[in-house]
Amino acid sequence: MANNPTASSRAWRISVRVLAVFAIIYLCTWAGHYTTGDGGRKIAWAKAMFLPQDAIEGEPLENGAYSKYGIGHSLVAAPPLIAAYYIRKATGIHAEAALYTLIFVANGALFLALMAFYLAYFYPDRWVWATVFIAGLGTIWWPYTKLDFSEPLVLTAAFLGFVLMRFGRPVIGMLIAGFTLAIRLDSIVIVICLILWYIFQKPTVRAAVLAGLSLAPSLVLVAFANYVRYHSLVDRGYGGEGFTNPLLVGLYGNLFSAGKSVFLFSPPLLLGLAGWWKFMRSPETRRDAWLFLGIFVGQLLLFAKWWDWSSDDAWGVRFMIPGVMLMCIPIITLLDRSDRKVIASVVVAAGVLVQLLVVPVGGLDYLLLVHQQDFERQALFVGGRERIDFEDIRFDPRYSQLMGNWILLRQLLHLNPAQGRNHDARLIGTSLYDAIPPEAWANAARWDFIWNVRARPVTSGANPKVAPAPAH
Questions:
Q1: pLDDT along the chain (472 residues), means of 10
Q2: How far apart are CA 147 and CA 150, in angstroms?
Q3: CB atoms within 10 A of CB 337
Q4: Do 323 and 380 belong to one domain?
């Protein structure tokens, strides 16, 4: 783990360039508005902690607390919210949503810069650039620079901690990685894998004690936050929710379902899995390969059992973002094989096309459409009509998010599908375009960029809300 000054200088140079390039790319597709009701609760708590009462009037309380979610996200959100409050007070300009959502643009670019820094120690620059472009534009990572969920923050913090530990700063690295527990307590899977990875390299009592002590500040913060909200050190925000889903259903849904498979939403993950063996065979990255695989498998098993294994409302399965992105890193081992370039190019192109279904039109608008109204489809064989619900979205390719966003994009491009025939619906089922009235598609379709911001609907679980658009 010793630092090589020449390699370190090269790694810094390429990581700064990657940071700049992707900051520009992600700013070009930045949405600049709130997207989730869950995010609204995290923001409300940040305001309650750091801003005067007039800044939080009307904010909702849930079971006596502003947010049941981890305090870490609210702490990260606090600086832009404070800045926006004083900007509004001084100038009258409402910049809250714009400044807040910049966190996720910066977070997206920062993770890719950290990936480049890590890979630059072991691989040529051109391979590093190719890998970060594949990961940054061909996977679920790009859409989540526009959505205010916690999982991307968890990944970047954990990977920053890993990089620091990997290159000689184990204490501060574990402190930073441990902070992910305050963002999402289920990041314990990532933290445990990091601790095991570190101890296997330094199997001493001192290393184990050091890792444990590094986690203490985050655990104290989590316990304190729970006590403030619920007068208990135990988290009571998820009462009634638990790991009750059949394991096989969750595994199938996450891996192979027609509407939520991680491979559908991040096709380059296939390349990462294909390159993992070679990545593991390299002496320099052998232990890292097992770490990345351990996180992926650990998250898969954990969330397959969660009652809401599909993590809705979300684009794809957001719970799996850390594991998916880490398992894309071994893609770099395939870039020296000319015989695989055609296959790799097809997979990468598919990944970019999937992201282009969501980046222009928004990741949650189709889901919100299903939430808000009772749309029906023809029931097959038994007659009658049935409501389109999230089981259809999860498992039926005709009603999946990919199909829904494709129709929204076609609506904006004035390339609407042709209406189907009732006879066809009775035989093969109702198409998604026919199940939802044309005026509903027209109202839901909009370009999702900051220059096109207006009041946009957002959701929290099954409860639709409306978030105000920022003035800019």
A1: 73 97 97 87 91 73 76 96 94 93 98 98 95 98 96 98 94 95 95 95 87 90 89 73 93 96 97 96 96 98 95 94 98 83 90 97 92 82 80 93 96 86 69 89 92 54 38 32
A2: 9
A3: 13
A4: no
**282 and 391 share one domain:** no
Helix, strand, coil fractions of the chain, as percent rounded to 5? 65, 5, 30
pLDDT at 466: 37
Do 332 and 416 fall into the same domain? no
The answer to whether position 65 is within a domain reads: no
The whole-model pTM stands at: 0.92
Q: How many domains does the chain have?
A: 2
Q: From CA 462, how far away is CA 69, in angstroms rounded?
A: 17
Please report the pLDDT score of residue 467 as a whole number: 38
pLDDT in the model for residue 38: 84
- With b for 16 or more beta-carbon neighbours within 10 A and e for fewer, the 362-400 pattern comes to bbbbbbbbbbeeebebbeeeeeeeeebebebbbbbebbb
Q: How far apart are CA 65 and CA 61, in angstroms?
A: 5
Q: Are 299 and 383 in a shared domain?
A: no
Looking at the fold, whether 305 and 214 belong to one and the same domain comes out as yes
Select from 450, 143, 141 the least CA-distant residue to 326.
Answer: 141
> Domain check: are 246 and 347 in the same one?
yes
Written as six digits, the tokens of 236 are: 């009571």
Can you give the pLDDT at residue 119? 97
Return all residues near 119 (Cβ < 8 A) that are at least 6 apart.
127, 128, 131, 132, 329, 332
Closest CA to 180 of 166, 167, 193, 168: 193
316 and 432 share one domain: no
Same domain, yes or no, for 303 and 377? Answer: no
> How many residues in total does the chain contain?
472
Q: How far is CA 345 from CA 134, 276, 337, in A?
A: 10, 18, 12
Domain presence at residue 329:
yes
Within 8 A by CB and 6+ apart from 26, the residues are 105, 108, 109, 142, 145
Q: Are 71 and 46 in contact (CB under 8 A)?
A: no
Domain of residue 411, residue span: 365-447
Question: Which domain-ending residue is among 356, 374, 404?
Answer: 356
Nearest CA-CA partner of 265 in 133, 367, 388, 394: 394
Interior CA angle at 450 toward 444 and 454, to 5°? 45
Confidence (pLDDT) at 208: 87
